[in-house]
Amino acid sequence: MSPETLIAAALVLPLLIAAGIAVMGWSPNLREGVTFIGGGLLFLIIVLLTMHVAGGERPELNLGEAAPGLSLAFKLEPLGMLFALVASGLWIVNSFYSVGYMRGNRERNQTRFYICFALAIFGAMGVAMSANLFTLFIFYEVLTLSTYPLVAHKGDAAAKRGGRIYLLTLMGTSIGFLLPAVMWTWVLAGHSLDFVPGGLLAGVDISPVVASALLILFAFGVAKAALMPVHFWLPNAMVAPTPVSALLHAVAVVKAGVFTILKISIFIFGADLLEATPAREFILWVACFTMLVGSLVAMTKDNLKARLAYSTIAQLSYVVAGAMLADPAGWMGGSLQIAAHAAGKMTLFMCAGAIYVATGLTNISDMKGLGRKMPLVFIAFLIGSLSIIGLPPFGGAWPKYELMQGAIDHNNTYLSFVLIGSSLLNIAYLLPIPFLALLPPPGTKEPKPFKRPDGAPMPTVVAPLITAALCIILFFAVGPISKFLSPTVGDRVDYIADGGQP
Amino acid sequence: MLEFLLERANYWVVIVLMMIGLYITYASQNLIKRMVGLGLFQTTICLFYVTLGKVSGGTAPILFGADAIEHHGAPHGAEAEGGHAALDAALAAGGEHSGRVAELVNTYSNPLPHVLMLTAIVVGVATLSVGLALVVRIREAYGSIENDEILEIDLETALAQHAEAEKAASEATA
Amino acid sequence: MIEALMNAAPAWALTHAAPLLVMVPLFLAPLLALMPSGRIAWLMAVITTGISFCFALILLGLVQTSPIGVVSYEVGRWPVPLGIELRVDALNAMILLVVTTIGLLATVFSWPTVVAEINKDKRALFYSAFLVCFAGLNGVAITGDAFNLFVFLEISSISTYVLVALGAGRDRRALPAAFNYLIMGTIGASFYIIGIGFLYAATGTLNMHDIATRLPELAGHRSVQAGFAFILVGLGLKAAMWPLHQWLPNAYSYSPSFVTMFLSATATKVALYALIRFLFTIFRPDYAFEISAFSAVLMPLGLAAMVVCSFQAVFQNDVRRILAYSSVAQVGYMILGVSIGTTAGLSAGLFHLLNHAMMKGALFMAVAGVVLTYQGTTIRDFAGLGRSAPWTMTAFAIAALSLIGVPLTAGFQSKLQLGFALFDQGMWWAVALVVFSSFLAVIYMGRVLEAVFFQPPANPRKARKEAPILMLVPLWILALANIYFGIAADLPLGLARDAAAAAFGVEAFR
C-alpha cells in the first residue's frame, strides 16, 4: 500500500472504529473486539508508516483546501511518527486495561466511553501527522471536544464541574491565545502555515518583541502542555475514571500538547529564531518553575491520582524546557521524554486504577502494606516510579540526561540543577508509595480487605506490567530511537552511541 | 449674520420642525402622540425636499406659454414607444442637460423632488396606518396607550411569570 | 448547476430576471391575502420563493459570465441616469442568493409553526405580508437607484412591523415591541431619506452609479458630508449597528418563530449590504476613510457591539434573547470587517455575513422546533431536551459550535479570515477583542448546551417528541451547510471575495 493510502487509512480507521463501536454497542464483547482489532490495525499501519519514514521518505497527503491558502494536509516526519507510535501502541494497552477497569467497576455508558476514546485517537493521529498549523489546530480542538465527555463521564456534580473547568480552560486558551498566534504566524510568514524544517519564520525579519509575544502566545495557548498557570485543568480532570486519566496523562491529550510545542519550536520558529527570542528564557524559567512547584505540590497530596496529576504537570515541563533549549540535545531530550514519560506515567495511573477497583482506596496513607496482597501491581508501580525519577536502566534516564547535557552546553546550567532537584522531589513523592506498600514498617495496620472478591481484574494488572516492561525496553532501545529522530531534532546519535563521553 | 440666517430660512424651518417632531416622538408617553411626532418628522422631510426643488424665480413646473408651443412639434399623445423615441431623440440631439434647459423660455422649479415626496407621503401614510392599527391592538391587549403604563404591566407580568417558574422549579426538585 | 439552469430557462427569464425576482412575490402577495385557506397560501408562498430563488441563481450566473461583471436593467426602458435602474454585480448577487435561499428554506419550514402560533383566519394574510417583506428585501438588494432603495426598504420594514406584531397571539409584548420597532425603523428610514436629499442637492441625480461618478469632484462639499452622516445613521439603525440596535432584542424575542428566523438571517444583512454599497461603491473608500477618518467611527462601534452585546447575552435567561443579542454582536463582527477598509477586511465581513445567515438561521429554526413541541423558551425549558428531541438539538449544537467558532465549522472559517485581515493591518488589539467576545460566546452558548445535554428535564413529563419532518429537513440542511462550508469554504469565500472586489471596483465599470 502506498504511504498516502496508509496515511488516509490511519485517519479513517479511528472514525470507523467509533462507528463500529456505536453499532456493536448492544454486545459488550463484540464492542470491545472492534476496539482491539481496530487498535491493532491502526498500530500496524503506523508501524508501516514508521518504516517508510525511517527509510528517509516523507509521505504527504493533501485533502484539499478548506479556504485559499489553508489546506488540510498531512506530512510525516520522525517526531510525528514517534508520537503516533506512542499513541496508537499505548491505546491498545489502555483499551485492554479499560475493559478490565470499566467492567470491574461496573461503570455506566461504556459505549459512549469507547466511542469518545476512538475519536480522541482520531484527534491524536491528526495532530501527529499534520503538515501545517491549520490542520494541527483543527485536530487539537477535536481532541479537546472528544475528551470532554470522557472527563465528565461519571455525570455527577463533581464530574460536571471538572468537565466544565477542563473545557473552558482548554477552549479558552486555544481560542484566546493559540488562535491569535496562528493568525499572526500566517501574516508574518507571508500567508503560510506549513511546518518547514529549519523553521517557517526562519528567514522572516521579525523583531525580538514580536517573536517573544508570539512565543508566549503559543506557550500558554497550548494549555495541554500544562505550563503554570494554565495547568489547573489537569488536576480537575482527575474526576474522570482512571483509564481516561491514563489516556489523558500519558497517551493523547498532554502528549499532543507538548508535541505541539516541540513542533512549533522546531518547524515554525527554528533553532536560530528561537535562540534570538528573548522570551525563550522566560518560557524556560516558567518550565523550571512548573517542574519544581508541580513536584512540591505533588508531595502535599494524599490522593494518589492528584499526586500523579501534579507529577505529570512537572514532567511535561521537561519537554517544554527541552524545546526551549533550541538545540539538538534539548530537542532530543524532549522527544525521548514524550515516549518515556508516556510509558512511565501510564504504568503509574493504571496501577492506581487497579488499586481503586480492587480496594476502593484512593489515598496513599491507606495503602501501607497493600503490596502484600497486590505484589505485581506495586512492582509495576515501582518500575514506573524509577523511570519517572530517571534512574537507569529505565527509560526516563535518557531524556533527563540529554536535557542536562543540553542545559550545560547552552549555558542554561540552572536547568540541570532544577532537573536534579526535580528528580530528588520525584523520589520523595513517588518512592514511598511502593516501598511502604511492599515493605511496610512493623506495626502498620492491616489494609482493608478487598472490595472486590477477586482483587484487581486481570487486565488491570497485566496492562501496567506491559508498560513497565516498555519502560525498561525504552532504555535499551534509545540508540535506534535517537537515530530515527535525528533528521528532525538534530544529530545526537554518535554522542549517545559513544556512551555520552564528551 | 442675519443675512446668513435669512438666506437659509427654509432650512432653519426644516431643522426646527424636524427636531420638534423627533422630540415629541421620544419624549411623549402616549402612543398616539408618538405617531404624531413621527408624522411631523416625516412631513418635514417632504418640506425639505420641496425647498430643495425650488429654483429662485421659478414657477410651478408645468410647461406654459412659449415652451408649450415649442413642444407641439413633438408627437402629441403618442403611445409609450413614440414617447420614448422622442425622448431618446431629444436627449441625443440636446446633449447636455443645461443645453436643453437653456431652450426653455420660462424658469420652472424642479419637479423631481415633488414626485419623490409623493412616494414618501404614501410611505408615510402606510406607516401611520400600521402604527395606528398597532395602537388599537395595544389598547385591546393592555387597556392603555401610555408607554409607562404598558411597561409597568409588562414588568408585573414578567415578575409573576418568574415567580411562577421559581415555584415550579422548587416543587419539581422537592 | 447554475449553467444548467441558465440553459434551461427561456430567453425572457434571462432578460427580465432582475425585475421578475422582485415582482413575482410582490404581485402574488395580494392574491395570497384573498386565499381562503392558510395551507394554499403557504404552498403558493413556497412556490413563489422558489421562483425567486431560481431567478437569483440566474442572476448570479449572468453576473459571473458578464464581461463587465454587472447586470443592468432599465425599468420601463427609461435610459439610465433618468430612469430607475436595477443593477446587479457580484455583491448584491450574493445578497440576493442569501435572501432567497433563506426565504425558501424558511417558508418550507414554516407551516407547522404558523399553524401553532397564528390564528386560522390570519394565516393567509400572514403569508401575504411575508411575501411583501421578501419582495421588499430583494428589492433593496437589487435596485440601483437610491430613492428606490428607500421605497423597497420601507416596503420590507412596514411588512416586518406587521409580521412582528402577529406574535401577539402568543405573547402580547409583541405589540409594544412592534410599535417601538416601527418608531425606530421609520426614524432610521427618514434619516436615510434626508441623506439622499442632501446627495441629490449636491449631485442632481438619484442613480447610485451616477452619484458615484459625480461625487469625487464634490468631495469637501458640506452637504455631501451631511448626507453621508445621515445615510450612515439611517442604514445603521436598520442594520442594528450598536448603539442603534435597541429595537432588535424585543422584536426578535416576541415575534412568531418563523418571523424571527427569517429576519435574523436576512433583514439586518440587507441593510448592511445597503450600508456597504454606500460606503464603498458610492462614497468610495478614499472619501469615506481618509477624508472622513472613518474607521475612527465604525470600528469602535463594531468592537463595542461585539463585546457589549456578548456580555449582555451572557446574562439572559431566554434563549431567543440570547440569540438576539448574539445577532447584534455578530453584526458587530461584520461592521468590524467593513471598517478595516481593505478588500480582505470587506471580504471577511461579507463572508461572515454568509456564514451568520446559516448559523442564526439554523439556531432559530431549532428554537422554533422547541417552541412548537415544548412551548418554552427559557434555558430552564431547554433542559434535558438533548434526550427528548435529539435530532433538533444536535442540529442546534452544530450551529452553536459554529457560532462559537469551533474548527471544522463555518463560523471558524469566518473568524479566521477576520483575524487574518486584522493582523494584516497590524490591529492586534482588535484581534484580542474578537477573541474575548468569542470566549463570551463560548459561555453564553455553553450555558444553553449544558442545559440541553447535561441537565435532567425540569418538567419530568418530557417524553421523546421531535419537531415534525417538515421542520427538521430545512434545519438539517442549514446545519450540514455549516459543517460543509466549514471544511470546504472556497465557495462562500469566493463569493465574498468577488463581492468585495465588486464593491471596490467602480472604475472598471465606468
Give structural notes.
The complex is a heterotrimer of chains A (502), B (174) and C (510). Chain A has 502 residues and is an all-alpha fold. Chain A has helices at 3-23, 28-54, 78-104, 110-129, 133-151, 157-188, 208-221, 233-236, 242-251, 253-276, 279-300, 304-325, 328-359, 375-389, 397-409, 413-430, 432-438, 458-476, 478-489, 493-497, and strands at 60-67, 70-75. Chain A has a two-stranded antiparallel sheet. In chain A, helix 1 (3-23) packs antiparallel against helix 4 (110-129), helix 4 (110-129) packs antiparallel against helix 5 (133-151) and helix 5 runs antiparallel to helix 10. The model of chain A has no long low-confidence stretch (mean pLDDT 86). The longest helix of chain C has 32 residues, at 343-374. Chain C has a domain at 293-510. The relative contact order of chain C is 0.09. The B-C interface holds B 22, 25, 31, 34, 38, 41-42, 45, 48-49, 52, 84, 87-88, 91, 112-113, 116, 119-120, 123, 126-127, 130-131, 134-135, 137-138, 141-142, 147, 150-151, 154, 157, 165, 168-169, 172 and C 77-79, 147, 150-151, 154, 158, 161-162, 165, 168, 172-173, 175-176, 178-179, 182-183, 186-187, 189-190, 193-194, 197, 200-201, 206, 378, 380, 458-460.
N-to-C series of helices and strands of chain B: HHHHHHHH
Strand adjacency order, main sheet of chain A:
1-2
- Give the helix level of chain A as a range of percent: over 70%
Beginning-to-end CA distance, first to last residue of chain A: 44 Å
Strand content of chain B: under 5%
Low-confidence stretches of chain A: none
- Mass-distribution shape of chain B: elongated
CATH architecture title of the largest domain in chain B: Orthogonal Bundle
- Largest interface, Cβ cutoff 8 Å: B-C, 40 and 35 residues
Summed over residues and divided by their number, the pLDDT of chain B gives a mean of 80
Report the β-strand fraction of chain A as a percent range.
Answer: under 5%
Query: How many strands, what sense, and barrel or not for the largest sheet of chain B?
Result: none
Structural class given helices, strands, pairing of chain B? mainly alpha
Figure out the total of helices of chain B.
Answer: 8
Oligomer state of the chains in this structure:
heterotrimer
